[in-house]
């Protein structure tokens, strides 16, 4: 379906973003810009606010203060922007009693994808799930559920992808599969923001790295310039 | 015209998904039905009422069964969305969030009405009265329409708390009391052979409940779901 959102740039601008829970600040004056085609790893300690930031960008949480613009259009006033955002969270967001195919079909209809069947088939094939398409999700391993969750997030071909600790709980094979998938997804015109606790394996594929500390983005640099940020380098080594 | 079609399409998709999940899992309807039947049996055997007293209490017992069974169903329906955070999946979609409310409400209403329709002949058998009357079915549908829309709205509120499993009944029963009283009075009137027109005030109260709680869902559901 041709929509006004399809022609939007995927530049994300976060300005003065604040989020408080019960008067406790979790995010404090975050300012960050991601350009078209950026693949940014978001690092930070547990509880630093990575998940909150991603959930705000996905439109799941309302910020206390501040503004987010996607392609110059405010996320708060244009809910249609959700059409170009794909989000993979901690949980797979799937119905356990439905089959993989039924889950994707449900989401495809919610996104009003015109050729639902072909989108579902293409998405399943792309993530190697064709053989399991008629199995209930509750029979899937964590890795398979993660793949299906990825298929769900990619179903509407979003140009902005948000990942929250996607490697958590994956075995080696599933993690390698995710590496390949992420490399394939990093294309011009698609912006990726991925929160990771241990980001070493991502350093070869990401373009940028942002360090979320004390509720603020303390550093946001090109991965190739990591040697110029000794504190962040040290932090990454400690986390390895 | 197209936005309305899209909106209705979302409501239908959510209802269809709920029916599909129930068909696969069979975890909601059977539990609601067994629970409602237990109440019918227990009251029937425990109270040992005379036929006259039984006739006057049937409406109340019917609504106690329906209210408890509905609450179970509504809780189950929202737990389904909480499992693996499927609710987030719905909220991520570029759809009007009030359509999610109407889809969930319609699902809860369909399941609860089905339980009610199964209960009516069983009540007729145990309480020696014919409950299979069109007027009573109309009262039941109106009452359940109001009750399930209020329940669906409050379940979205309770899902965000740690005490979610007990919070829904605590919030729902007091707020639904006017609806339950109106439903019992209207049902009692129908069972005593009065015409629906004679109970118009109770029927209007039920209708007002349906309109009010659905309007509240339309306005507040998005705010309630947003963290």
Question: Any overview of this molecule?
Answer:
The complex is a heterodimer of chains A (240) and B (227). Chain A is α/β, with parallel strands linked by helices and 240 residues long. Chain A has a domain at 10-90 and 158-239: P-loop containing nucleotide triphosphate hydrolases (Rossmann fold), CATH 3.40.50. Chain A has helices spanning 50-57, 100-110, 116-126, 142-154, 172-185, 230-239; strands at residues 12-21, 24-34, 39-43, 65-70, 73-74, 85-88, 160-164, 191-195, 208-213, 216-222. The mean pLDDT of chain A is 91. With 227 residues, chain B is mainly α. Helix content of chain B is 84%, strand content 0%. Chain B has helices spanning 2-25, 29-47, 51-82, 86-92, 97-126, 134-158, 164-191, 200-225. In chain B, helix 3 packs antiparallel against helix 5 (97-126) and helix 5 (97-126) crosses helix 8. Chains A and B meet through helix 2 of A and helix 1 and helix 4 of B.
Pick out its properties.
heterodimer; A: 240 residues; alpha/beta; Rossmann fold; six-stranded mixed β-sheet; four-stranded antiparallel β-sheet; 6 helices; globular; B: 227 residues; mainly alpha; 8 helices; 0% strand
Please give the CATH architecture of the domain at 10-90 and 158-239 in chain A: 3-Layer(aba) Sandwich
- Based on secondary structure, the structural category of chain A is alpha/beta
Chain pair sharing the greatest interface: A-B, 32 and 24 residues
Mean pLDDT reading of chain A? 91
DSSP strand count of chain A: 10
pLDDT averaged residue by residue of chain B? 92
Radius of gyration of chain A: 18 Å
The CATH topology of the domain at 10-90 and 158-239 in chain A is given as Rossmann fold
Would you summarize the structure shown here?
By secondary structure, chain A is of the alpha/beta class.
Chart the SSEs and their pairings.
The complex is a heterodimer of chains A (240) and B (227).
Chain A: E1 12-21, E2 24-34, E3 39-43, H1 50-57, E4 65-70, E5 73-74, E6 85-88, H2 100-110, H3 116-126, H4 142-154, E7 160-164, H5 172-185, E8 191-195, E9 208-213, E10 216-222, H6 230-239
Parallel strand pairs in A: 3-8, 3-9, 6-7, 7-8
Antiparallel strand pairs in A: 1-2, 1-4, 4-5, 9-10
Helix pairs in contact in A: 2-3, 3-4
Chain B: H1 2-25, H2 29-47, H3 51-82, H4 86-92, H5 97-126, H6 134-158, H7 164-191, H8 200-225
